[in-house]
Write a structure and sequence with these properties.
With 399 residues, the chain is of the alpha+beta class. It is 30% helix and 19% strand. It has an 8-stranded antiparallel beta sheet, with helices on both faces. Strands 4-9 form a two-stranded antiparallel ribbon.
């Protein structure tokens, strides 16, 4: 990737060095393996940096072409695929999901446990495509051991997937449909498997396998040559180790090594909510396309108005993300509604999303700013590296 002088796009070079200082601090402390950072403004990359290792044990340095598990940063690509089909007239956003995936026709909503079992309610309104895009459909991820619906997801979806690793995307989604909803659609934001369901919707509506649609319509046109649902043997040497904090949270333990990773072989279940591997450069091309309102290098994936709709807040009055009224949600990513109440440096309307292994992208339309951070660290709330890097990026804007 070519870079330009930070000053040419309104940054201070001296101040941008603070981004690297934040990255270096956490690598030196042994809390992160290695980090990549990209900062672009007005369509030009102004800062590109790397610190640390893609494999700590082997002392293998992180590189700009290192492959990362991006987990939930897959969701925005799936959402773009959905909106491309929406633009082509295949469906309306308020269409019932059951119109395309009949297994959701008899969806029920969990009410409470009873002495003899559970009480379930009928839908008061259809579960729609819009509900899935905004995580307001009542679906779950299965994270809460004490929650009845989450236990159903664990048993019927995750355990089955674990025991049957060759499960197809169709069967995976059909098993999600077997589980009751947590709430009536449209009443609550709850982060969930809904985007994985949408990946299957793309497959049903387009008549193509979901991964083939992504390759033909998004990855190929954008030149995202290293983004896929698996890592071929020829690229395994570029695939980073995934880590987790050790028990005392003073160091790192290996969670997923490239050679034994599930990503090291093809999958029959390309998960639209969590399944992609990508590079910093590839994901920048996707993010810059969104920042450019749907177009990059002559390839237009979406119309301007569609991107504007996607980055608008779609949560109705009284519904907010993570209980924070400063945070909204669009069609595929979070949206900042009140910059003062987030208590960090950003603009109203900034949008983006992150992944479980401490990866993130954000786009600030007011500042024409894109920034992306990539590392591989799971289950860590004690390393605020992304928040610190955000401050370091914004304080460097001087025009």
């Amino acid at each position: 990737m070519n870079t330009v002088s930070p000053e040419s796009v309104g940054f201070s070079s001296a101040r941008l060095k603070r981004v690297d200082q934040v990255m270096q601090k956490y690598v030196d402390q042994g809390k992160l393996p290695g980090v990549l950072s990209l900062v672009a403004r007005r369509g030009q990359v102004a800062h590109l940096s790397k610190v640390g290792w893609m494999d700590v044990e082997a002392q293998k340095p992180i590189a700009f072409d290192t492959l990362f598990r991006i987990y939930s940063m897959t969701k925005p690509l799936t959402s773009v695929a959905v909106m491309m089909l929406y633009e082509e007239g295949h469906f309306f956003l308020n269409d019932p999901v059951a119109k395309y995936i009949p297994e959701f026709e008899d969806a029920k909503v969990f009410v409470r446990k009873t002495e003899t079992g559970v009480e379930l309610d009928n839908l008061k309104r259809p579960l729609t495509i819009h509900h899935l895009l905004t995580h307001t459909g009542g679906l779950s991820y299965g994270f809460d051991e004490n929650d009845y619906v989450d236990k159903q997801i664990q048993n019927r979806v995750w355990r089955h997937h674990h025991d049957n690793p060759d499960i197809t995307l169709e069967e995976f989604v059909h098993r999600i449909a077997m589980c009751p909803l947590r709430t009536q659609p449209g009443t609550e934001f709850y982060y969930s498997l809904s985007i994985d369901v949408l990946g299957y919707l793309v497959q049903v509506v387009s008549g193509q396998p979901f991964d083939a649609f992504l390759q033909e319509r998004i990855l190929g046109p954008l030149g995202m040559v290293d983004t896929a649902f698996d890592v071929p043997e020829s690229k395994l040497d570029r695939f980073a180790v995934n880590y987790t904090p050790d028990k005392e949270k003073k160091g790192l333990d290996v969670l997923d090594a490239p050679e034994t990773s599930r990503y090291a072989k093809p999958t029959r279940c390309p998960a639209g909510g969590m399944g992609l591997v990508s590079t910093l450069g590839d994901y920048y091309r996707f993010a810059q396309m969104l920042c450019n309102k749907g177009e990059l290098d002559g390839q237009r994936l979406l119309g301007r108005k569609t991107v504007e709709l996607m980055r608008s807040n779609h949560l109705r009055d009284g519904v907010c993300r993570d209980g924070n009224p400063a945070l909204g949600f669009g069609l595929g990513f979070g949206v900042t509604l009140d910059a003062e109440r987030t208590q960090t440096l950003e603009s109203v309307g900034t949008y983006g999303w992150g992944g479980a292994a401490t990866t993130r992208f954000e786009i600030d339309p007011q500042e024409e700013l894109v920034h992306i951070e990539m590392t591989q660290l799971m289950d860590n709330d004690s390393v605020p590296v992304l928040d610190e890097m955000q401050v370091a990026i914004y304080q460097a804007i001087v025009d």
